Amino acid sequence: MMLSIKNIHANIEGKAILKGINLDIKAGEVHAIMGPNGSGKSTLAAVLAGREEYEVTEGTISFLDKNLLDLSIEDRARAGLFLAFQYPVEIPGVSTTNFIKAAVNEKRKYNGQEPLDALAFLKVMKEKMAMVEIDQSLLSRSINEGFSGGEKKRNEIFQMAMLEPKLAILDETDSGLDIDALRIVANGINQLRNEHRAILLITHYQRLLDYIQPDYVHVLYNGRIVKSGSKELALELEEKGYDFITDETDLTAKA
Amino acid sequence: MNEDLDMLEQSALNDYKYGFVTNIDTDTIPKGLNEGVITLISKKKNEPDWMLAWRLKAYAYWLKLEEPNWANIKHPPISYQDIIYYAAPKQKEQLSSLDEVDPELLKTFEKLGISLNEQKRLTGVAVDVVMDSVSIATSFKEQLSEIGVIFCSISEAIQKHPELVKKYLGSVVPMTDNYFAALNAAVFTDGSFCYIPKGVRCPMELSTYFRINAENSGQFERTLIIAEEGSYMSYLEGCTAPMRDENQLHAAVVELIAMEKAEIKYSTVQNWYPGDKEGNGGIYNFVTKRGICQGDYAKISWTQVETGSAITWKYPSVILKGDYSIGEFYSVAFTNHHQQADTGTKMIHLGKHTRSRIVAKGISAGQSQNSYRGLVRTAKGAINARNYSQCDSLLLGDKCGAHTFPYIEVKNKTAIIEHEATTSKIGEDQLFYCRQRGIDGEAAVALIVNGFAKEVMNQLPMEFAIEAQKLLAISMEGSVG
Ligand SMILES: Nc1ncnc2c1ncn2[C@@H]1O[C@H](COP(=O)(O)OP(=O)(O)OP(=O)(O)O)[C@@H](O)[C@H]1O
Ligand SMILES: [Mg+2]
After folding, report:
1. Is the confidence at residue B302, as pLDDT, over 90?
2. How far apart are CA B151 and CA B138, in angstroms?
3. Would you say residue A20 has pLDDT above 60?
4. What is the DSSP string of B317-375?
5. Residues sharing a CB contact under 8 Å with residue B211, sequence separation 6 or more, in sequence order
6. Of A168, A221, A252, B121, whose CB neighbour count within 10 A is largest?
7. Beta strand residue intervals within B169-281, DSSP E
8. How confident is the model at residue B6 (pLDDT cuts 50, 70, 90)?
């Protein structure tokens, strides 16, 4: 098992957001998580990445046979956990290329590898740039500063390609993309899909899942996974909305 | 949240790497300040009578003044009678070559990364080295003199070029300018002198390295730079001091004169001992720096990276007298622990079509206070004067302060003054983003801070930019839990 989440409860500022999440992900699998706004999808991603504002009050998470909750944010990243942010932040004055180079070399150091020299780095970069059709000029600018919404998302996937994670969590990477950009980004993700890598896709839209066919679809509602199924579940949701699941859940909760 | 904050505070803990003391015999005079002391200093330097008269006049004026108290800084009263006003490392009177410099001193400067050996030095930089009250050595003097550039200590200039010194000393910063300028005029001991003749583009960076070594002493240096018509020069100063528990006073004066179409680029990397984590010790840095664009199309550009000193009080300014002249001020001020900085600039527009640009970046950590104070004044005759000011503050942690005091005085309706200011906290989101990519917190803070300061760092000559970047990283270094 690559990732095994057992009964995770998490709070922010004393408020319970995740209320018992269970989820197992194997290498090679693609899982989609859907669910209404505010249900806790980004919170789950943040807890996995180790964001310290969130307090895990109950449960365990193992990642590659390690206790994930014992690892620092940076060690989780270096061990192969990658989060494509729903809202990537701007860091003025820090060039995207230098930033990614620092990240790549931190990871190499963690794995006992020599840092990439400028030439080798450039070569890898060229290759991955082609994969997500990202422009060189974007990468020489300050990271995310003044990037359009779509450019930010594309830059996240570019970083994923550069860092070659074991587990990639993509938080609404499809939101804000135009039709062409969606196709390009989805293409990039599909190229990164392989038997050694797992992907957790957080999305609101079926249209992404038309490109990237998930092995499983889960519905997160009010801090719990209330329904899991195959890719057909997403189509059903598209057609009927969340009500048919959430009403059911609310009823059981009341009973 | 709290863990992240702790980390920021942790990363603001630094070690000062230049805090060692050189064991060398020092020729010092007794503590205290009076006419006798000033006469003694003048005599030790074998000065002409006019110089002594000038000093005594300044002293008499200083006695009438009160220490200024308008800056956003706090410190116990400075006891001017407890300071040693002259301290000189003992060495042979007249050095015929650099080889005669005391090996202990050479070692000191090697340790600080300053090689006095011309062969070993980067060929693009000539350096004048000042320890305590005297200039120890100046490199590349001969090569420079072949093209008419005079680069020597101010003491030497008083002896060899009295006509130039007499003409320009105090012409930009008069002895009556302010309390510390008056004090400096009375007791200044050494500093650098540069003269670039008409039409000469100085082929190398000229630089001065200031080092305080002796205990209980103050350093009062004076620098005078004259760029004749159509000339260009780039100058850099650096400074360090040993770690000591008591505060030491550094009160310098720098005067720049740029004639028609001349350009002076003056860069400072200020790294005086900042005091310890509890705020004990450190240098009190009260400095008056001012340049005048005397002729049309002259340009003066100040760039400063301020990381040291317990207190920094400093406003490198430009008087834009010539028409179409340009003044620039680029500043990064980093304060940590209990450091206090009150720094900025004055741009005085007198000539027509004069332009000035101010970019000030303040970074505060620990319990430090960091203030930007700037004045932009356009006189009646300054038709079409333009100023653009940008002041950005970055806070690391929540126990420090950032303040901005912009003053604008416009006496001409055609002037256009723009001012932008921002204050931001180093974002938890930014830190999380970096750490999620495997960049640890300390490296992330350094990355973010360097990014913040980049626009100013880019103004420094290449090799110094790298040094300054390292310095900034070291200033923030600490153990991250
Ligand atoms: N710092 C915070 N303080 C208080 N509540 C918070 C904080 N951060 C998140 N929340 C709350 O946690 C809940 C879950 O938020 P989360 O961002 O995980 O939702 P989401 O499922 O990702 O929603 P969306 O689809 O809109 O992205 C929301 O009700 C949100 O308001
Ligand atoms: Mg979300």
Report:
1. yes
2. 8
3. yes
4. EEEE-STT-EEEEEEEEEE-TT-EEEEEEEEEE-STT-EEEEEEEEEE-TT-EEEEEEE
5. B108, B109, B112, B129, B130, B131, B132, B239, B240, B241
6. A168
7. 192-196, 205-211, 222-227, 232-240, 247-250, 253-258, 263-270
8. very low
> What tens digit of pLDDT does each residue of B49-66 get?
999 999 999 999 999 999
Q: How do strand B326-335 and strand B299-306 relate by DSSP bridges?
A: parallel
Strand partners, B356: B327, B387
> By the 8 A CB rule, do B128 and B150 touch?
no
Is pLDDT at B390 greater than 50 in this prediction? yes
Alpha-carbon gap: B443 to the closest alpha carbon of chain A (Å): 9
Q: Which residues from B are below 8 Å from A51, CB to CB?
A: 432
- Residue B318's pLDDT is 98
> What domains lie within chain A, and their CATH numbers?
3-254 (3.40.50.300)
Q: What is the pLDDT of residues B81-131, one digit of tens each?
A: 998 898 887 765 555 566 666 777 777 767 666 666 654 554 466 777 777
Q: Does ligand 1 have an atom closer than 6 angstroms to the CB of A13?
A: yes
Handedness of CA B170, B174, B176, B181 (dihedral sign): negative
Q: CA B220, CA B247: separation in Å to the nearest integer?
A: 15
User: Do residue A99 and residue B435 have CB atoms under 8 angstroms apart?
Assistant: no
Alpha-carbon distances of A29 from A3, A197, A217, B157, rounded to whole Å: 11, 7, 11, 78
**Cβ neighbours for B102, distance < 8 A, ≥ 6 positions apart:** B24, B89, B91
Substitution site in A15, A17, A44 for ligand 1 pocket (most atoms within 8 Å of beta carbon):
A17
Q: CA B73 → CA B76, B272, B350, distances in Å?
A: 10, 17, 31
Ligand 1 binding pocket includes A12 (Cβ within 6 Å) = yes
Residue type, B257: I
Closest protein CA for atom 6 of ligand 1: A12
The answer to whether the pTM exceeds 0.90 is no
- CB neighbourhood size of A89 (10 A): 17
Q: Is B173 exposed, middle or buried (0-12, 13-18, 19+ CB in 10 A)?
A: buried
Three-state DSSP class for B106?
Answer: helix
- Give the pair of three-digit tokens for residue A55: 């307090």
- The encoded tokens of residue B288 equal 């008056």
In three-state secondary structure terms, A242 is coil
Which of A192-196, A231-235, B297-301 is the least confident region? A231-235
Q: Do A142 and B451 count as a contact with CB atoms less than 8 A apart?
A: yes
Return the SS3 of A5. strand
Is residue B172 within 8 A of residue B255, CB to CB? The reply is yes
